[in-house]
Amino acid sequence: MNKEIVTGLMAYGMSGKVFHAPFIQAHPAFKLHAVTERNHKQAASDYPDIISYDTTEALLADTEIELIIINTPNYTHYDYAKKALQAGKHILVEKPFTATSAEAKELFELAKNVGKKAFVYQNRRWDSDFTSVREIIESGELGKLNEVHFRFDRYRAAIGPKSFKEEPLAASGLLYDLGPHLLDQAISLFGAPDSFHKILGENRSGTKVNDYFSIHLAYPNSVHVFVHSNLMIAEPLPSFVLNGNLGTFIKERADVQEDQLLKGIKPVDEGYGVEADGKNGKLFLMNGEGHKTQQTIPSVTGNYLPLFEAVYQSIRHEQAYPITAEQIIIQLEILES
């Protein structure tokens, strides 16, 4: 049996507590070893054996650690990723990977040069709702797609407390917060667009950063993909709408993993990742005579553990990681444009 991948977390805020530590703990091939906690020491209450370092320098100097998860504010990703690679660690970096495509290219090249892996944490490829969308597209039931919409809407009129999202820093604003999720989903399905057009907006009172974006991605054969996000939506529209020459698929954003993890439900618990009743997708198909039929499409169970399994397989068995450097660079070229 291969030895465990000894893992360190750069931070133990919401991201570390909810999106990383539970999965590292649940996966038998990983060992949750250490975390950086500059002020409040909270990790030990959840993981009594964990080491809590006061600084990132101390975390990086721990020779037992093989993999560092970089889940710090967006503008710090490039610097910490570079330091971790230079310290001889594999890295798993939260979205956005970096603020620019040039920084991303540099880090991917550095990882190659030092013989380490640079992974990007695009967990929403494993949401239950998006998995349903992928399966419908791959089934071919909609025929040739012509118009696809992905939305991620919220109503948050107040300026949030996280300055790295609300101040005009590198990789701030809604575009760099939710844009990486939506663009990654689109790029994972359709690849690099032939062209794109981006619109940004600032609608909240007192905002210093964008809180609205809409990006049109144009693909060959008249396939048009639109990704949208808005912080001033009181009643969200369906998050996924797929139109093809044989029908339409409509799906709400319904993945429950984040809410469950916040409540302390573990990835291995019964019922984890199962959508609530009434959230099924709706598939409308037209037959050759122009008659429309409707079906409900139950979602598969969501689970982010396959992302960590992919990290393990890449480190231990050199298998290809599904989120490629090329896809991340395309994403960042769109975000930074």
Computed Rg = 20 Å
- Helix proportion: 25-40%
**Unreliable sequence segments:** none
Strand order in space, largest sheet: 8-9-10-7-11-12-13-14
Structural class: alpha/beta
> What's the number of helices?
12
User: How many strands, which pairing sense, and closed or not: the largest β-sheet?
Assistant: 8 strands, mixed
What would the average pLDDT be, to the nearest integer? 96
The best one-word shape is globular
Within CATH, the superfamily of the largest domain carries the name: Dihydrodipicolinate Reductase, domain 2
C-alpha end-to-end distance: 46 Å
Q: Provide the CATH architecture of the largest domain.
A: 2-Layer Sandwich
Question: At the third CATH level, what is the topology name of the largest domain?
Answer: Dihydrodipicolinate Reductase, domain 2
Give the tally of structural domains: 2
Query: What is the CATH class designation of the largest domain?
Result: Alpha Beta
Q: What is the tally of beta strands?
A: 14
Portion of residues in beta strands equals 15-25%
Order of helices and strands: EHEHEHEHEHEHEHHHEEEEEHEEHH
